[in-house]
Amino acid sequence: MSELLDFHAHILPHMDHGSRHTETATAQLSLMAKAGVGTVCATSHFYPQDILPEVFLEERQKSLQLLLRAHGKANRPEILLGAEVLICAGLENMEGLRELCVEGTDVLLLEMPFTKDDWDHSLYHTVHEILMQGIRPVLAHVDRYPPHAIEQMFDMGLYGQVNCDALSKLFKPKHLLRWMEEGKIVALGSDLHGAEEKAYTPFTKVLRTMPEQSERIMRTAHTLLKQAKRY
Ligand SMILES: [Fe+2]
Q: Which of 1, 39, 102, 182 is deepest in the core (most CB within 10 A)?
């Protein structure tokens, strides 16, 4: 089995509502360690209208230091710093966009808007321009959007990340299974908020109930991060 990678989780204290306290964050890391997770991407929300990348990066670093002081090295996965970046028109021009990619890579976890009206021409233009910069966007929780809208993004060359709660139910959405089969979904995420044990159950359940697909996606995610290495 490849090393388990949780590609999407809110585990950095004080960065967003996913982890309000250091104690929550340490409990989250313990949950992951118990599940056998080897690496987690810490993808705190980044809302471009609210904060500058340089300020976000500084706060993220402080948050990480706080967490590492509280938890130490044992009984936790490796932490790769990242962000869940909400797209907006013009995002391609924002200075520091590349710095929000998963640490050391060109892979960017991109969150699409939830309102239909925001999927307009300027959004597609922005996605195109981001791709032109050599950034590899992975769409966060593709399970939450209308399948045809996500298909369009796949056609443009984007990848997808799926939240495990969408796959942990008895009846799994067919289009998600198809996208996994086709290699369009390249990463699994818990999108962990809070530290309740049940919050991590979907992630472990998918690993247990879909072992072959999980293994394939883990391999794909590791390969993507390796290929997208910047340093
Ligand atoms: Fe998230």
A: 102
Task: Classify 133 as helix, strand or coil.
Answer: coil
Domains located in the chain, CATH noted? 4-227 (3.20.20.140)
What is the CA(45)–ligand 1 centre distance, in A? 7
Provide the pLDDT confidence category of residue 170 given band limits of 50, 70 and 90.
confident
Give me ligand 1 centre to Cα 84, in Å: 6
Cα of 215 from ligand 1 centre, angstroms: 22
Q: How far is the CA of 200 from the centre of ligand 1 (A)?
A: 14
CB atoms within 10 A of CB 47: 14
Q: How far is the CA of 112 from the centre of ligand 1 (A)?
A: 11
116, pLDDT greater than 90: no
Helices within the chain (DSSP H only): 22-35, 53-71, 121-132, 147-156, 174-181, 201-209, 211-227
Centre of ligand 1 to C-alpha 228, Å, is 22
Can you give the pLDDT at residue 72?
87
Check pLDDT > 90 for residue 230: no
